[in-house]
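BUG: 3D viewer hangs when loading the predicted structure for this chain

Environment: internal workstation, default settings.
Expected: structure renders.
Actual: progress bar stalls at 90%.

Input used:
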Amino acid sequence: MSPWKYRVVNGVLLGGAIASFLLLISFTDRAAQDPTAEGDPTAKDDAQPARDRPAPPASTEFTETRNRMVTGTIERPWDGRTRVKDKNVLAAVRAVPRHAFVPPDMRRRAYADSPLPIGHGQTISQPYIVALMTELLELTPESKVLEIGTGSGYQAAVLAHLTPHVYTIEIIKPLAEFAAQALGKQGYTEVKIRRADGYFGWKEEAPFDAIIVTCASGHLPPPLWEQLKPGGRIVIPIGGPHEVQRLIVVTKTPEGKRRSRTVTAVRFVPLTRDMEGE
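Structure tokens produced before the viewer hung:
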């Protein structure tokens, strides 16, 4: 994929998660905040992602730290929050080198269980929330998934370990460029990126089996609902920018009816819109 074939996603960026989720874990996170303290360990993990795809070049770095992050904060959270149980999702998060998707000055904190700033008022989501939202999508290798809010590309990379059919939109040009470069450098060439207002989705590539929105919106954007297949699902934070939002799963029945359920409280950055029609 050529550098400008990506027309990127809605600058909506990943958010963080609920304040309670932002607590740094004790012994697990302490080591995760400074991966270099371990001398760049390369321990292997037996779990393999659902897709048989090449490992990202940077995945050989900080493997032990990444495994501890997944085990201690996602697979068996120390604080009692809901466990992520899908083995394919857990393997995907273990496989993706998060440190390759954050600014250089954030690498020391790449495996902390917290969101991190990536510039332009945006953040890369907390690893736990990335894993939880990915699990809620219930993807298969045949699923076609749309992400609203590419950010640094981390969530898209995780999705790419579950399905080769990943489409992502970012509205903020520098982030779109950063994500395209990071994804390309780590070998995620199957991910298709578009720079656009994600509120309107990606009509030309619809319908989608699943849609993930990594920024908060006051309502479910109608174009996204229209681009969802019957039987598909949307995972989205609903609520205002200065309040705790609800992470909800919206399912479209075979008859086209809407069913929603709230999963947990979260806090994400707001959906960025193109108010000038550019």
